[in-house]
From TrEMBL:
Belongs to the bacterial solute-binding protein 3 family. It comes from Rheinheimera sp. BAL341. SUPFAM superfamilies: Periplasmic binding protein-like II (SSF53850). This is Bacterial extracellular solute-binding protein, family 3. It comes from the Bacteria. Keywords: Signal. The keyword Transmembrane does not apply. Residues 1-18 form the signal peptide. The keyword Signal applies. Residues 23-249 form the Solute-binding protein family 3/N-terminal domain. InterPro entries: Solute-binding_3/MltF_N.
Length: 275
């Protein structure tokens, strides 16, 4: 009888002291081939697998926001109304309202797009006299503005990749510098672009690659989990999981030597926005 009573007391004690896992919301949109967000059902894709593993190793439960535009997610992070974002380039402004944890390094993230009939461009000097479109809000490599100042006639900001490809198609600009993955999706999804636009051979002579980050809102109720998130990313790198999740993503490379200092913010024109 005493043994049964002791067992019951131990069971009650375990139930009352057990704490539920904290729930952190990941704010995300539909990013084809990385985190697909169907009209019905939960997000899926390699980035989703990465975030689930991160949650498991960090000791929290992952929840998903509704399909939310990227800029809106940034605002929610700033206000502390959501907890996590992924695949973020660094800017001083973002760093002011979220902790940025590097986990992959950009490879050839930005490409130069031309009309199919345009002569190929292999060297920065060939940009001389051209009007170059860039995507408003996208955070480019910090070295790009100086390269453009030295080599091109005019730089035009364009709201979206779709609008940029349209302006290129109708020769409102001579070339467009744009993020590879989202632009490739735009081109492949639109027949009028698919056979009319190509990628130039030019590789920008950047001295340093940018890093891609996971963001944790500084106003999150669970901001104390930052050390666990950092430790989990490190352990996932050591186990080869970061490389596994990004093995088919040409835009990024696994982080080997993380930057000791974050890069300075780029000039205002290329400073803040998506990616």
């Amino acid at each position: 009888m005493k043994g049964l009573l002791l067992s019951l007391l131990l069971l009650i004690s375990a139930v009352t002291t057990a704490q539920p896992l904290p729930v952190l919301q990941w704010c995300l949109d539909n990013y084809p081939n990385r985190h697909n967000y169907p009209a019905q059902g939960l997000p899926y894709g390699p980035t989703v697998d990465l975030m689930r593993e991160l949650a498991n190793r960090s000791g929290f439960e992952l929840s998903f926001s509704p399909n939310t535009p990227f800029a809106r997610c940034l605002k929610l992070m700033q206000d502390g109304q959501t907890d996590l974002m992924i695949r973020l380039n660094y800017s001083d402004e973002r760093n002011s309202y979220m902790h940025l944890i590097p986990y992959v390094r950009s490879a050839r993230a930005e490409y130069l797009y031309l009309l199919e009939q345009h002569k190929d461009i292999r060297d920065m000097a060939q940009l001389s006299g051209l009007t170059i479109g860039v995507i408003r809000g996208y955070i480019y490599n910090a070295e790009l503005p100086n390269l453009l100042i030295k080599n091109s006639k005019n730089v035009v900001e364009i709201d979206t990749e779709d609008a940029a490809m349209t302006m290129l198609l109708y020769q409102r600009v001579d070339a467009v510098i744009a993020p590879m993955q989202t632009t490739e999706h735009v081109i492949n999804s639109n027949p009028k672009f698919k056979n009319a636009i190509k990628i130039a051979s030019l590789e920008f002579p950047f001295q340093h690659n940018m890093y891609v980050h996971i963001g944790l809102s500084r106003k999150s109720r669970h901001v104390a989990l930052l050390p666990q998130l950092q430790a989990a990313i490190n352990s996932m790198e050591q186990d080869g999981l970061i490389q596994h999740y990004y093995q088919n993503d040409a835009a990024v490379e696994p982080v080997e030597d993380k930057p000791a200092d974050q890069p300075a913010a780029v000039v205002k024109m290329l400073k803040e926005g998506s990616d």
